Amino acid sequence: MTIEPDAAAGVRHVFVRGLTLQARLGVYAHEKIQSQRVVIGVDLAVRDPHAPSAEGPDELSRVVDYGVVAETVRRIACAGHVRLAETLAERIALAMLADVRVLRVRVSIEKPDVLPDVTSVGVVVERTRF
């Protein structure tokens, strides 16, 4: 399932893609000691109270700030060693749902330097507000 904007349902799509950072992620001994390149993507379905028929105020405070999303992801990913990409993705997803405007979140975690003949490996998780 993709996260798409839906004016009739009052939902907008906010995303941060290709956030590349160094993190300690993995189950192997060398991954616990040395950080590696990790690429993270976040897609959010966000409540849009002005859709479908109005334009909201041109104010940052009324929207989910993708700069704050990126900073939150950086803080979580760099907080310390995490064994599983799934766990990292779940932590990020739950942090995004802390904003009550976020209805659904999809997080991708990619490790591009793990296998020499593969572009990247990783996981995608999705969480929904109930």
Automatic annotation (TrEMBL):
Q: Which GO terms describe its biological process?
A: folic acid biosynthetic process
Which Pfam families does this one have? FolB (PF02152)
Keywords, ordered alphabetically: Folate biosynthesis, Lyase
Q: In which pathway does this enzyme or protein participate?
A: Cofactor biosynthesis; tetrahydrofolate biosynthesis; 2-amino-4-hydroxy-6-hydroxymethyl-7,8-dihydropteridine diphosphate from 7,8-dihydroneopterin triphosphate: step 3/4
For the Dihydroneopterin aldolase/epimerase domain, which residue ranges apply? 14-127
Instruction: Please provide, in alphabetical order, the Gene Ontology terms of the cellular component aspect for this entry.
Output: cytoplasm
Which GO MF terms are attached to this record? dihydroneopterin aldolase activity
The EC number(s) given in the record are 4.1.2.25
InterPro entries in UniProt = Dihydroneopterin_aldolase, FolB_dom, GTP-CH-I_C/QueF
Known catalysed reaction(s)? 7,8-dihydroneopterin = 6-hydroxymethyl-7,8-dihydropterin + glycolaldehyde
**Family to which this protein belongs:** Belongs to the DHNA family.
The record, for NCBIfam families, names: folB_dom
Q: Name it.
A: dihydroneopterin aldolase
